[in-house]
């Protein structure tokens, strides 16, 4: 069984989780569930990034300690993931002692190799983004556009310049590591200018102390980004003899938002090269959700509150919309009208109606028992042809294409139902309804990564709770004749 290690960025606990966090994490959860279904040994890591002056300041304003602040805010993310049916294998927090040990150990190791050295940082710093600016960036933050502050402080530098050529050579040999393709241009632009060495400490009390072995300024702590990137190592027990590191490394895919490309495609690979570790197979930078064509912000009043949508329309409808509406690398516009349209057409009319129609016919014409199988015919062919395509789309991190393929199966099943008209007394309804039940069973497996609750509802409606919900279930003809088909509320009540 081959392993599949995937990560999301860990989220900074200075604010409430928003739709962007939900997007990345739902996407990761869908991949984790799909590859688990395919029999891979999946390890899905996410978590929270908890150090830095922003947290320190927010805690001071709230009159609590930074640790209490981090506890409180980190919990918001964990609670939201439970509500969204997101099931990571590990939720890491950068305040965990084991993570801190890994960060200090890496710091010491890189110092010993001359990849970390003392100096003085003179330049601009964006406190909002916790980002050092390079000299060519001027004083405006390239990420948030804010005016930044000039600081001068003793620091340790990471010798990024040493890895400019090795990274360029690596990407030339492995362009597929940078996903989607359109991110490659931005990465190559970054690599076409000289990469200066970067600060990897800050004068900030709320951070991981430098290793005790290094006689350092006691006010310096390890820079929050350096600390955060290393969670991908500590999250799989890097440095522990009997930990999972050996069988898990390197990551098969790491998801990120396109605003943190420099950290993930430049600094992160450089750190790994410095440590002599294999690089991830793929890094995928996805797009942003805009609202009315603009970035969401409190001041514009156009922020989408994820829980509100989940409460109104259901968690599955939200997960579905996020992954079905736009290709994963592109920006999308999150608006309620588009959401309701997609809900009604794809979920209420197509999928929900399909299940409702044939289940009703099985109840009225076959005493609520799945009839005997006959010839699977063209519907079986259609479904079986879709299975490898679905796997291909998921392997390409193409949720949009995956769901498009799934919809062709739903549409084919609805047409089949219309054409075979099993409600007419003169038609032999048994084999037709069997084929529809079997199609729904396979759909419930394939849609589980995106809509876990709906998948469970379809299976229980068909009395199939006991059938394998793993790769053994991805064959035609497993629905047993005689399974009891239950009455149930519509999966997706139509919106007026
Ligand atoms: Zn900024």
Characteristic key phrases:
14% strand; alpha/beta; 46% helix; seven-stranded parallel beta sheet; 496 residues; Isoleucyl-tRNA Synthetase, Domain 1; binds zinc ion; metal-binding
Task: Round the mean pLDDT to the nearest integer and report it.
Answer: 94
- Report the strand count: 16
The major beta sheet can be summarized as: 7 strands, parallel
Bound ligand species: zinc ion
Helix content: 40-55%
**pLDDT < 50 runs, ≥5 residues:** none
Give the amount of beta strand, in percent: 5-15%
Taken from the alpha-carbon principal axes, the silhouette is: elongated
What's the CATH C level of the domain at 336-473? Mainly Alpha
Count of helical stretches: 17
Q: Give the N-terminus to C-terminus distance in angstroms.
A: 47 Å
Radius of gyration: 26 Å
Strand pairing plus helix content: what structural class?
alpha/beta
Kindly report the CATH topology of the domain at 336-473.
Isoleucyl-tRNA Synthetase, Domain 1
CATH H-level superfamily of the domain at 336-473: Isoleucyl-tRNA Synthetase, Domain 1
In the CATH hierarchy, the architecture of the domain at 336-473 is Orthogonal Bundle
